[in-house]
UniProtKB/TrEMBL annotation:
<dbReference type="Pfam" id="PF25989">
    <property type="entry name" value="YknX_C"/>
</dbReference>
<feature type="domain" description="YknX-like C-terminal permuted SH3-like">
    <location>
        <begin position="338"/>
        <end position="405"/>
    </location>
</feature>
<dbReference type="Pfam" id="PF25917">
    <property type="entry name" value="BSH_RND"/>
</dbReference>
<protein>
    <submittedName>
        <fullName>RND family efflux transporter MFP subunit</fullName>
    </submittedName>
</protein>
<comment type="similarity">
    <text>Belongs to the membrane fusion protein (MFP) (TC 8.A.1) family.</text>
</comment>
<feature type="domain" description="Multidrug resistance protein MdtA-like barrel-sandwich hybrid">
    <location>
        <begin position="83"/>
        <end position="229"/>
    </location>
</feature>
<keyword id="KW-0472">Membrane</keyword>
<keyword id="KW-1133">Transmembrane helix</keyword>
<dbReference type="InterPro" id="IPR006143">
    <property type="entry name" value="RND_pump_MFP"/>
</dbReference>
<dbReference type="Pfam" id="PF25954">
    <property type="entry name" value="Beta-barrel_RND_2"/>
</dbReference>
<feature type="transmembrane region" description="Helical">
    <location>
        <begin position="26"/>
        <end position="47"/>
    </location>
</feature>
<dbReference type="InterPro" id="IPR058637">
    <property type="entry name" value="YknX-like_C"/>
</dbReference>
<feature type="domain" description="CusB-like beta-barrel">
    <location>
        <begin position="252"/>
        <end position="325"/>
    </location>
</feature>
<dbReference type="InterPro" id="IPR058792">
    <property type="entry name" value="Beta-barrel_RND_2"/>
</dbReference>
<keyword id="KW-0812">Transmembrane</keyword>
<dbReference type="InterPro" id="IPR058625">
    <property type="entry name" value="MdtA-like_BSH"/>
</dbReference>
């Protein structure tokens, strides 16, 4: 074969159809694979997904951790004082001196303030003078009566001897009886004057404001020169000198919902935690359940006594309380306890069980139960804190079933 023949072999024949069968086959293969994948996804969505049971779960929790106590009910309230008084003068007057400051301790009867006593002193001086005049009147009448009685006695002897007339004697007796009546009147006037003097002395004493009981001053309401009055007259008139709180009368008041008041009983042990000191747990006890409800809030007020006195506890502090189980020492209730919702518990014959969620499978767990705690139940063994247990599932649920957690609405 010469060179010209070789060149003819290399020439491209443009009339021949393009070789496309292999490319067409590639596209067909890719389409088949895609269809298979789509069919697989659809099949899983229709059959595999629907085969998983829809359930709801809840966490396993602990109570009493970190030294807190197991409680049958928790509530919030405030520290209040049973003995608290805003001390005021009994009369209206101008403050002369204030002898208290906030935070100061006072004893019963201690002077807190004094008012200007000018008017009261004037009233007392006048009453003293009146009482003296009444006493002098009594002595004058008594002297006159003594003379009249002696005169009547002499005339009675003379009239018997017919040395004087009967009319003179009768006149002397009438004068004596009149003086006796005047003496009684003057004595009564003297007593009235004495009582008036006592009232005037009380008026002077009312200018001195004293503490009604021992406590701590929490507010100073007046300053020297201000007018104070026991009645709220408005304007710039003060109604009190200061406020005293008996720190030994501090207690806790909480509002408990009507739905849970049945869990609270008198003398029930309580553990209180002040918002200001969250790590300090104060032992307490229920004093009384006030036998009336708040219609607006649907709550019942409960009074709680503090068993520990401490300067850190002051009125109006916010506090959280836990009502503890009766009949058990607080130390026994302080250990951490695991609990699950009552809805998670099931019966398998005589055995109590729960279904725990492990990935997407339901795992059967035999549990040992403790006492009920409201809507929860203590679990002594079988589950651990932090795990998820199934609370709502079809009754046919069994160990190893595939589940999916329902989305919360």
């Amino acid at each position: 074969m010469n060179n010209s023949d070789l060149l003819k072999e290399l020439r491209i024949d443009r009339k021949a159809p393009p070789e496309t069968p292999s490319r067409r086959g590639l596209w067909i293969a890719l389409a088949s694979i895609g269809a298979a994948v789509l069919l697989g996804v659809a099949g899983w969505a229709l059959f595999g997904r629907d085969s998983a049971l829809e359930v709801k779960t809840a966490p396993v929790t602990t109570i009493g951790n970190g030294g807190s106590s197991a409680s049958v009910l928790d509530a919030t309230g405030y520290v209040v004082a049973r003995r608290m008084a805003t001390v005021s003068a009994k009369i209206t007057g101008k403050v002369r001196e204030v002898m208290i400051e906030e935070g100061q301790k006072v004893e019963a009867g201690q002077v807190m303030a004094t008012l200007d006593p000018i008017d009261a002193d004037a009233e007392r001086s006048l009453a003293t003078a009146q009482e003296g005049a009444a006493s002098s009147q009594v002595e004058s009448v008594r002297a006159q009566l003594s003379e009249a009685e002696a005169n009547a006695s002499r005339l009675s002897q003379l009239v018997a001897q017919q040395l004087v007339s009967k009319a003179q004697y009768d006149e002397a007796v009438a004068a004596r009886d009149s003086l006796r009546a005047q003496l009684i009147t003057s004595q009564r006037n003297a007593k009235v004057a004495g009582n008036r003097l006592h009232i005037a002395e009380l008026g002077v004493d009312n200018t001195i404001v004293r503490a009604p009981f021992a406590g701590v001053v929490t507010a100073k309401a007046a300053q020297p020169g201000e007018i104070v009055s026991p009645l709220a007259t408005g304007g710039f008139t003060r109604t009190g000198i200061g406020t005293i709180v008996d720190m030994d009368s501090l207690e806790i008041e909480v509002d408990v919902s009507e739905a849970y008041i049945g869990r609270v009983q008198s003398k029930m042990p309580v553990e209180a935690v002040l918002n200001a000191y969250p790590d300090w747990r104060i032992p307490a006890e229920v004093i009384a359940i006030i036998p009336t409800a708040d219609r607006a809030k649907a709550t019942v007020k409960v009074r709680i006594a503090l068993k520990s006195r401490d300067p850190r506890i002051v009125p109006d502090m916010g506090v959280r309380v836990s009502f503890l189980e009766q009949g058990k020492p607080v130390a026994e209730q302080a250990a951490p306890r695991t609990q699950v919702p009552v809805a998670a518990l099931r019966k398998d014959g005589e055995q109590d069980i729960v279904f725990a969620l492990r990935e997407d499978k339901a795992e059967r767990r035999a549990v040992r139960l403790g006492p009920a705690m409201g809507e929860n139940r203590q679990v002594l063994a079988g589950v651990s804190a932090g795990e998820q247990v199934i609370v709502e599932a079809p009754p046919t649920l069994k160990d190893g079933d595939t589940v999916r957690v329902a989305e919360s609405k």
